[in-house]
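Re: your question from the hallway

Yes, I did run it. Sequences:
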Amino acid sequence: MTSRVESSLQTQLDRIDRVRTARLARAILRDEHITLSHGSGGKSTHTLIDALMVPAFANAALDGFADSAVLSTNGVGSPRFAFTTDSYVVSPLFFPGGDIGSLAINGTINDLAMSGARPVCLSVGLILEEGLEMDVLRRVIASLAAASAAAGVPVVTGDTKVVHRGKADRLFINTSGVGIMRDGLNLSVESVRPGDVVIVSGDVGDHGLAVMLAREALEIEADIRTDSAPLHELVAAILAAAPNTRLLKDPTRGGLATTLNEIARHAGVGIAVEEEKVPVKREVRGACEMLGIDPMHIANEGKLVAIVSAEEAHAAVDAMRAHPAGVGSAIIGEVRSEPEGMVILKTPIGGSRVLDMLVGDPLPRIC
Amino acid sequence: MTSRVESSLQTQLDRIDRVRTARLARAILRDEHITLSHGSGGKSTHTLIDALMVPAFANAALDGFADSAVLSTNGVGSPRFAFTTDSYVVSPLFFPGGDIGSLAINGTINDLAMSGARPVCLSVGLILEEGLEMDVLRRVIASLAAASAAAGVPVVTGDTKVVHRGKADRLFINTSGVGIMRDGLNLSVESVRPGDVVIVSGDVGDHGLAVMLAREALEIEADIRTDSAPLHELVAAILAAAPNTRLLKDPTRGGLATTLNEIARHAGVGIAVEEEKVPVKREVRGACEMLGIDPMHIANEGKLVAIVSAEEAHAAVDAMRAHPAGVGSAIIGEVRSEPEGMVILKTPIGGSRVLDMLVGDPLPRIC
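Structure:
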């Protein structure tokens, strides 16, 4: 038995190595200038990271995919910690249901939570444009502080820089975060295997659309608010109910479609999703149809994707639905051995099509 | 004996409390808009932090003065860690002796080192302007990677955002960092006391002037290069030679004068500096005279100020001079009980004057 398990693990690892090598080899950066799509979280972002960042900073902790780096402190037996960083350049600064401040706190908490860490503390780095109204700064700082207090994760260090008028767009925020890893977890893309179940924690597409509607003078009247929320307590509930959870990811830039594609590629598996099971609000679906955008390509800031074993799937969904941040949770698909590296969407009328990751950027600067 | 020591400590703590309360009470923010001087590291920056940030994020770890927050992981006996963040908006991106990439790595390493931590890992968050030349990004990433490798502190996580053309100035970098605290250290402004000795690790003013000369089309021809360097190994040498070191600070924005004023104010002590003992390169002094700037108000990126006990002062200076990053180290002054919160500069001809912290910002965006 043991040897069969080991051999199956070796096969799995070989496949992942093969997929990674192929991915890095493909990452040829042909652009001579940075474009907005390099910040989309989609294909261009992946090419940029794989071609420029991963080779430059090559080390064990940085794999270009994890939401946080996981490191040991000093020596065997010490607690491991998670470390993550995110910059926020959303425009406008304020939008229905949230603003750049609460977004920056929740987003970084979520990156820590997805890696299985309990968030411990955050930093806030501000880049301010000369001429920014002090009242705007006051509101953003109040929002940062309120979100930090609501989540129970303190801001412990900070930095402020000012650039000349016209050299930034009012206000950018970097939040980095440190968390302590739970013992005994093995959340990793390597643990994803055929037969696993794909769960999403609620309606997708709200955040990106809320920001876009706040920004553009569109003739769409819809009450769409950001879903920005801290997910660390929802993660705690999932891990308690489904201790063998394979992987948690928050589908932010590039949306659910990009996140599922990333998982399929990095794990060297196929993912089959039933389109009608993916929860999307009626208003969001309507607005997306008018704009010609797929809600599965739109960023979320308060949702997660959980890949769990078939045995633990119902326990996980029940626990998620019992939590305020996961009431809309649904099983939307399953992991298969093939087609390797691809996501297949099964339509309600019995057809199926490939669901690709985001290409280009229909919604720049939504986080 | 014990009671006298305790009573003296209590007096010291009472004075620090009084100074802090007075400082926060003074911090009334009258500006209605952000100005460049809010990013100078001088008086306006302090007012902004004291009036807006410290009250909003009030917690034990954040005191608005330390270079890093120091926190315990989880529970008694766990190692304590240090956490810091810094954004870099220097213009131009490349200047004699360095660039924004090496600056961002060294600066954050130094913030960790000043808190007495051994730097463990760094994050890099990039904000890119649409249209940035890919070759510029390549050079900056190569510089980040080279500085990280040279210092032995890996970049383990990152983030990339892109904003529209005209909404940033080519490239901004945030580097955050985590370090593990050494046991048994008590580096803190509270431990500074009259009789202590003030040491600086070398020539001051190089960095800010190098950037300014690279930026402005000035009629000054001088070979002035940034001093940007990682100081964590110099700190290790100091702490080995002078284990009772009171405080380490890197005099970056606002320069040596601002750093000494911060120490005097936060510790509730006076600091007397002998002007002729402060090391300044001849070219730097000459350029400063032409520009009407005091080299003590100019940012350094590879220097530190050490406050050590009189007993350990010579051991500290000897150890510093024996290290490549500290060959120009010099004792420049001493801590006195008064004038409380002030820095007095003793001139070569026997006079003395108050050395204030930076007011306004003669050199914006030098880091």
